[in-house]
Structure formats: C-alpha cells, structure tokens
Design goal:
Layout (H helix, E strand, L loop, with lengths): L1 H10 L2 H38 L6 H9 L3 H28 L4 H25 L10 H35 L5 H8 L1 H8 L1 H15 L5 H24 L6 H11 L7 E3 L5 E6 L2 E6 L5 E3 L9
Antiparallel strand pairs: 1-4, 2-3
Helix pairs in contact: 1-2, 1-10, 2-4, 2-10, 4-5, 4-6, 4-10, 5-6, 6-8, 6-9, 7-8, 9-10
Length: 301
C-alpha cells in the first residue's frame, strides 16, 4: 500500500507533492518501524520454538527468561513509536476535518501526551532484566498506557465520525452523489476515523488488563493496525480522495449560500471525473473549487 501511494505521489504535480510530502514521510517511517517489529518478533519466535526449544521450561520458559532481551525491547520501542505516529496522524486528521480548530483537539492532545509518557515508563520497566511485558510490574504501567491510547482512539474516532455525518447532512443537496459518497460514504468514515483500529484497541486493552492468554494475540493484531490504519488514510490523501484543509475551507465558505449559488466543480490537474445530472462534473484531487453560476437552474444541481 505504501509503495502504491509512493508511486501515485511521484506522478502528482510538484505543487501537490509539497503539500503531501509529510504523508509520504509518515508512511515511510511507519513501514520502516513495522519492519523492525516484524523482524525482531520473527527472530524471537525462531529462538523460542526452534533453536532453543530444549530450554529449561520449554518455549514458555524461554519467553519468560528472555522477554527483556535488548533487541526485543528495541522491537517494543519501534512498536510504540509506530503507535505514536498513528495516533498523531489520527489527531491531525481530526484537526483538519474539524476545520483546523485548536479547541477541538485540546483534550485529545492531552490524552495523547499522557499516553506517550506512560508508554515510555512501560518500555523502561519492560527492559528490566527478568521482567515480562505481559506479567508483573510492567502490566501496572502498560494497562494505563493501553487505556490512554485506546481512549484517545475512541474519542478522536467519535469526533471524526460525528463531523463527517454532519458534513454529509449539510452537503447532501449541494454535492453530486458521487462526490458525497467519496467524502462522507461508509468507506470514508471507516478509514478517516480508523474505526477498526479503535475496536481492536478495546479488545487489546481488555485482554491485557485482565492478564488473559489472548492478550499477546490482540497486541500483535492491534500493533499491525497501528501501521495499517495510517496507510489507509495516507493512500486516500495521496489519491486525492480524502478531506484536506482546502476542501474544508472551500466547502465551509460556500455552504451557507448554496441555495442561491449552485455549486460547480472546476477541472484541474490531477482531477478525478465523476458523473452528475445534467452533464459531467470534475472534482480536483487536491482541493475543491466552487464557482457561482447563477444562470444554471437550481434543479440541475
């Protein structure tokens, strides 16, 4: 997905590349960190199940004795940074979708900073010789970290969903069905809000907090979505199908007068063509340009 996004990015106009470069950097960082996580987990599992299977206590004994080894701690750190990047991107998307309102993200930002602090404490505790990420004192710090991170996901997800549903109601009469579906459809809501990521986070927090044996499984799946969910968002942004600050500002500016000034989308470089009644409408992939065309009858919009 990242390779495809990068390929699309390289084909866009230079003016658009400068606006989307940060998303490519985030995507590359997420892929690199996830590669570290996967590599360290694979090596550890090979040692645990194959190379050192005759360890005293078997594979479980090896896990308990070596879970704090330095390169495993390095993998945990990479996993946590991936989580920070994913949460940060989700928080930024909330800021954009809510019209760049600082007030909308003050409380989620405090939770975000608190989750980072607890994650660092959890990482330090998990690196203590003889400690286990899923047992003992580490859990006392890990559970608050997981709870804060999941709470952040739930709050931001709810805010994004509410805002997109509001936008759908506001723009139902001013946008053609194809554009409305693109920006406020089910897939847009699921991806922009990272809803699957939040649901998996709840499952991980519950199983981890209760010390259930299923906790590691949900952690691995949730950690994968820490990288995968941002890639979905990045792909939509690079593909020109996601909310941007230009779209938000243009739509917000023109919505108040859409009853008197029917909205028409002007074609441009990197645009995506969509159908509409009474002709063909073209939607820019980077921003929406709304023109007043008073000579067009209202029933043709």
């Amino acid at each position: 997905m990242f390779a495809h996004s990068l390929n699309l990015y390289m084909k866009t106009a230079p003016s658009l590349q400068s606006k989307r470069r940060i998303y490519v950097i985030i995507g590359a960082s997420s892929v690199s960190l996830t590669a570290v996580v996967v590599f360290t987990d694979v090596v550890f599992m090979e040692f645990m199940w194959i190379d050192h299977r005759d360890f005293d206590g078997g594979p479980l004994g090896y896990l308990m004795a070596n879970s704090s080894i330095w390169w495993q701690t390095f993998g945990t750190a990479a996993n946590q940074v991936t989580n920070f990047i994913g949460d940060g991107l989700l928080l930024y998307r909330c800021y954009i979708i809510w019209g760049r309102s600082i007030w909308a993200i003050i409380f989620p930002s405090l939770i975000y900073l608190s989750s980072i602090a607890m994650a660092m404490i959890t990482l330090v505790q998990s690196a203590v010789p003889g400690s286990n990420f899923f047992r003992g004192k580490t859990v006392n710090f890990g559970v608050p970290w997981a709870a804060l991170s999941v709470s952040l996901n739930i709050i931001v997800t709810a805010m994004i969903i509410v805002r997109l549903l509001q936008a759908r109601q506001q723009l139902k009469r001013s946008l053609p069905p194809e554009a409305l579906q693109m920006y406020t459809g089910v897939s847009a809501i699921l991806i922009e809000s990272a809803l699957p990521f939040s649901i998996l986070g709840i499952a991980f927090a519950i199983t981890y907090g209760k010390n259930l044996d299923e906790g590691p499984a949900f952690l691995f799946i949730w950690a994968t979505f820490c990288a995968l969910s941002p890639q979905f968002i990045i792909f939509r942004v690079i593909n020109g199908r996601s909310w941007t600050k230009d779209i938000i500002s243009e739509v917000t500016t023109k919505h108040a007068s859409y009853y008197d000034t029917p909205m028409q989308f002007r074609a441009g470089e990197g645009s995506t063509t969509i159908g509409s009644s009474g002709g063909k409408t073209t939607l820019l992939s980077s921003s929406v340009f709304i023109q007043s065309k008073t000579e067009v009858a209202k029933d043709q919009v």
